[in-house]
Amino acid sequence: MEEETKNKINGKKLGFWKWAIASVIFRLILIYFPQNLNLSSRPEVSTPVTSLRRLAEGYWLKQLSMSPYAGSMYHGSPLLLSVLGPLTAIKVEGQPNHLLCSLVSVIADFICALLIRATGCILQTAHGQNLKSLGLETMLEDIEIMPSGDIAALVYLWNPFTIFTCVGFNTSPVENLFVVLSLYGASAGIVPLAAFGWVIASHLSLYPVVLVIPVILLLGYCPDTPPRKLFLQRDFQKTGAERSIKNHVQERPLTNKPAEATFFWWRVILFFLWASIWIAYVLILCAISVKEYGGLPEMFKRTYGFILTVKDLSPNIGVLWYFFAEVFDFFRNFFLIVFHVNILFMILPLAIRLNHRPCFLAFVYLTISSMLKSYPSVGDSALYLGMMALFVNELAEMQFSFFLFCGYVGVSLLSPVMHNLWIWRGTGNANFYYATAMAYACFQIILVVESVSAMLNHDRKIRKQCRTMEG
Amino acid sequence: MGIRESIFLLFLILISTYESFAKEGLAEELNEEFTEGLLLRPLPDRKVLAHFHFQSSVPPTRTYGRHHHLFPKSIYQLVNKFRVREMELSFTQGRWNYESWGGYDPISSNNAKPPGVELWADFDVPLDQVDASWKNLTHALSGLFCASINFLEHSTSYSAPQWSFHSFAGKLRYGTLPREAVCTENLTPWLKLLPCRDKAGLSALMDRPSIYRGYYHSQRLHLTSDEFDAVKSNSGIMLEQTLTVVLQPSTLEARAMVSVKTLQPSWSLSSLFGRKVHGRCSVSKSSNVYVQFEQNLVSELKEMWKESEGSESGILIHDDFWTNPIFEMSASPHRVVKEVGNLQQEDSSILYEFLVEDYNDSEPFDLGLRWKLPVAWLCQQAPLRASRFLMGSGNERGAIAISLKSSGINNTQRVGCSEKGSLLSIDIFQVVPWYVKVYYHTLKVFIDGELQSTMENIENMHVSPSEDKVSPGVMEMILRLPCGVKTAALTLEFDKGFLHIDEYPPDANQGFDIPSAVVSFTDFQASIGFEDNFLNKLPILNELQERKHVICYTEVLLVPLTTPDFSMPYNVITITCTVFALYFGSLLNALRRRVGEEERLLKSKAAKKKGPLTSLLSKLFAKLTGRPVNPPETPSASPSFIDYKLIVKVILVAGMAVKLFRSSFQLN
Question: Testing the interface with B: which of A338, A356, A434, A443 to mutate, by most B Cβ within 10 A?
Answer without folding.
Answer: A434
